[in-house]
Amino acid sequence: MSTAQEGLRPTPRVVALFSHGDRHYEPLDPVEVRYEVEGLDDEPPRAVEHSVLWFTEGKGEEDLGVHFFERVVAPERLPPNAPMGQFSCRLPQSPLSYEGVVVKIRWCVRIRFFFDSGRDYVSEHEFTVGLLPPARPLMTIP
Amino acid sequence: MPAPVPHGAVPTASRLTSANPFSTRYTRPGAVPPLDASGQPLDVGRLLDRVHDGCWVIEGPHGRGKTTLVRALITAAAAAGRTTSFVQVRSWADAWPALSSVATAGPGHIVAVDGWEQLPRGVGVLIVAMARWRRTAMITTAHRPIGLPVLARHESSPALVAAIIERLPDHRGTILPDDIEQAFRSHRGNVRDTLATLYDRFEERRP
Amino acid sequence: MRFPRFFGKKRGHRRTGSQAWASLGDAAFHAALLAAGIVFSGLLLSGVAVPEWRINQHFLATDCTVLGKGLVRRTVVAADRSSSFTWQPCLRVRYDVAGSPTESWSTPSRSTTASDRAKAVAALSAWKLGDTVPGWYDPTAHATVVLERGYNWWMWLLTLLLPGALISFGGMGLARAIRRWGRSQERCAVPSRFSDLLDPLAAGPRQAAEHPGVPACDDLVNSPGTVLPYRLPIESPENWTLLGFGLFALLWNSVLAVLGVGAVVDLVRGKIDWLLLTLLVPFAAVGIASLVLFIRRGLLTTAVGPTQLEISAQPLRPGGRYEVLLAQGGSGTLDSLRLALTLEEQATFTQGTDTRTERMTVWACDIRTWVDLQLTPGARFEAREAFTIPRDAMHSFASQHNAVRWSIAVHGQPAGWPGFVRTFPLVVFPAEPTIDHGGLRREASP
């Protein structure tokens, strides 16, 4: 739960580096992510979760599918002991990133920090899987 | 099929951040802070100060931000250390979670019941009686007066819609003030449906 | 092989906080259901099931001699505070317990409680004083004796079903709420052995193996075709529409008939209920219209005849070329018959009391169109056509609230009748990637 001091506490800053600089991948490609986080001096996290997931966006309720999940609690792998974090996984065959009209599918990595005070902080970084052209409202092709 | 991206081309940065700002992800209750009819932020803390106990209602027609406000109140109450629960009532079957939440709450707790008119008639009376007996604060949302003290009465305006849009990701000039006015009028002030129409406008004019 | 390039920094979205408060009400509700189920099952077990089991398993057999007959009187207080009595026959019996004679009252189970004393007295005539009847007594409480035993299976069913439903529903919901408590959205969404069991509604549609997000196509491949390998199931709601029209017409006209009879009876008696007569006019109009619509829809459904579609392969892949066999039955003339391949997006959003589903066709291609088609009764019009799934096409996708659907639609326009559309769903998998020995990726040719 958020605490009353939330507004006064500076928010951390996460910089994520992908193995593909253009953040474009194909199905079954390995994805490697390294990240640096700043602004955690006041309160070191007690755990961090790494996720690779897809989610839908558009006019419908947001659905999501988690492909890779890892929860790290070992202090030697957490800031400030480990200023840089990393994780990797192999992407599945589907779903592909899709730029539809009322349904869009996006892939991202999420890095979520948990603190002893009960608050958590999440940073999300998108990437693309596959190379599909965007969809448009119907144009009938005879 | 529309012409595919040429082989070897890479998605540009704009593709990565080409989200439609009117997607439900950005417009669902809780994503935008509650605003009043003129588009100014509502003082959630001041409203919360009035809710120590008793039963309250947030009134307003469809799509005016009642759910947004009640969620903001619950979040603020939780942040202030109060025990809270939230029940979304979509049909009579949700009456039992609402009753249970009030029955298991205690003094100082806040229970939010979103969708009062969906409750069977007698259940609403029972919830109010139980909340008073348990000395629990109960906030509900309704489209018309239901005999409870009004915590907030929600109306909408094009200014409200414009203020919401300012808090959404950049639409890159695809939405004009006339679009807002027209959509607002065609949906008779329903902000939710107005934003859904603006979603379509953005998709049509997407750069 | 690509080497990692660690440049190109991008910032992402940031959100803070968790919504544990949303789980509290959910947990409280399910805990209340679980508690109610436990209490209810405890009451039923201790009050009904266990005593009955003890009677059948532990009570000792004996012979009982009927010494006397009587009635048990119970007072029943009604809602209006008036009281009445109920009467239940009972027998005074004597039996031996380890050689010692014991007497006690017992209620024969085949005697029922009656509100009429005379009936209860008449029921007692089934037993005579001095009769010997079989009985069973409680070895731990000799004064307790029963004159019948056996199992009321329906009572055991009730004991298991109702509390069982409360316990399972409440228990699963509580487990789900506890599992979600304090957990991040991502952690809750990680599939586990228990996730489908605890939250079946959130599981979403069944997915194809090795292809997350792609709907399973088992239902599409389990029906063999007569010419091509697979026969496609139809998605058309025509039959449901017909059923809906029929039910509405039946219900409405039944109510109309009752009202009509009532009005006629009143008229015969010389009473004129103007309100009823006024209401009957629009009611009758609606009733007649519903009948006409139902008959018309029924004639259309039967006259047009069935549409069948077979396909050469499943599942489909982008870039693949496939054959379909269209078979259209019926009689009369079809002004046009059109076979089209479509891609549709579907998004469902629920907010408050509103549930909204939006559908958007984002791509369509006519496979073939026929005009002025003459259908012969007893024979079928058949045609074999080919189509290609575009190489850069999006695959089929289905999640709990969103979907991307491929289908083949058959649009028919019978002469003089409303048109019809019959839809046959398809599942398109992503293109199959392969990696050759050089480590370069290229797409497999379908």
Tags for this model:
heterotrimer, A: 142 residues, mainly beta, Immunoglobulin-like, three-stranded antiparallel beta sheet, 10 strands, elongated, disordered N terminus, C: 446 residues, 4 domains, five-stranded antiparallel beta sheet, 8 helices, disordered C terminus
Itemize the secondary structure elements and their pairings:
The complex is a heterotrimer of chains A (142), B (207) and C (446).
Chain A: E1 13-18, E2 24-25, E3 30-38, E4 47-58, E5 64-72, E6 84-90, E7 98-99, E8 103-114, E9 120-129, E10 140-141
Parallel strand pairs in A: 2-9
Antiparallel strand pairs in A: 1-3, 3-6, 4-5, 4-8, 7-8, 8-9
Chain B: H1 13-16, H2 24-27, H3 44-50, E1 55-59, H4 66-79, E2 84-88, H5 95-104, E3 110-114, H6 121-134, E4 137-142, E5 150-153, H7 158-166, H8 177-186, H9 191-205
Parallel strand pairs in B: 1-4, 1-5, 2-3, 3-4
Chain C: E1 13-16, H1 20-57, E2 60-77, E3 83-97, E4 100-106, H2 117-123, E5 132-138, E6 141-146, H3 153-180, H4 185-189, H5 195-198, E7 207-208, E8 211-215, H6 218-221, E9 230-231, H7 238-268, H8 274-304, E10 307-311, E11 321-328, E12 332-351, E13 354-375, E14 381-388, E15 397-398, E16 402-414, E17 420-426, E18 433-435, E19 441-443
Antiparallel strand pairs in C: 2-3, 2-5, 3-4, 5-6, 7-8, 9-10, 10-11, 11-14, 12-13, 12-16, 15-16, 16-17, 18-19
Helix pairs in contact in C: 1-3, 7-8
**Text of the CATH class of the largest domain in chain B:** Alpha Beta
Q: Mean pLDDT of chain B, nearest integer? A: 85
**Assembly of the depicted chains:** heterotrimer
Shape of chain B: elongated
Low-confidence stretches of chain B: 1-17
Tally of structural domains of chain A: 1
**Intertermini distance of chain B:** 19 Å
- Helices and strands of chain B: which structural class? alpha/beta
CATH topology of the largest domain in chain B: Rossmann fold
Shape of chain A: elongated
Distance N terminus to C terminus of chain A?
A: 56 Å
CATH architectural arrangement of the largest domain in chain B:
3-Layer(aba) Sandwich
Please tell me how large the radius of gyration of chain A is: 18 Å
Largest interface: chains, residues each? A-C, 72 and 64 residues
Strand order of the largest sheet of chain B: 2-3-4-1-5
Instruction: Report the CATH C-level class of chain A.
Output: Mainly Beta
